[in-house]
Amino acid sequence: MACSTIELLNILGKKWDATILEEIKQGNDINFDKLLSLNAKIYPKTLNKALKDLVGIGLITKEIYYQNRMKRSRYLVTLKGKELLISFEYFKQANCLNNGNPVKNCGECELGPNQVSDTNQKVSEPI
């Protein structure tokens, strides 16, 4: 069994995970399709893997429910995930103070995963 801190850093160090976690926090009823539409440059397979990883370490939960007899699912940030997001905010603020960069949502950052220089192609993590 790996150290939980190392496991967490390995997952959150991946290209999309912090952005996905922030978007789940901001959305009240966010499902796979909504996340896919918010992150136009992510492949469904990459999003699915990131969601499984975030569920696996307890930062989000996948809730299954029924609406008009249809099975639906949505993702919610857990208490552990909310606590981590608070730490992200401190990190962003410190970065802003030290580098003069404005605090931004990871999905809007010019260096974030939704931004690709010189191409409009989807981006995936290396295999």
Automatic annotation (TrEMBL):
Domain HTH hxlR-type: from-to ranges: 3-103
Matches recorded under PROSITE patterns: HTH_HXLR
SUPFAM superfamilies, per the entry: Winged helix' DNA-binding domain (SSF46785)
Organism domain of life: Archaea
InterPro entries xrefs: HTH_HxlR, WH-like_DNA-bd_sf, WH_DNA-bd_sf
This protein's name: HTH hxlR-type domain-containing protein
Species the sequence originates in: Candidatus Parvarchaeum acidophilus ARMAN-5
Upper taxonomic lineage: Archaea, Candidatus Parvarchaeota, Candidatus Parvarchaeum
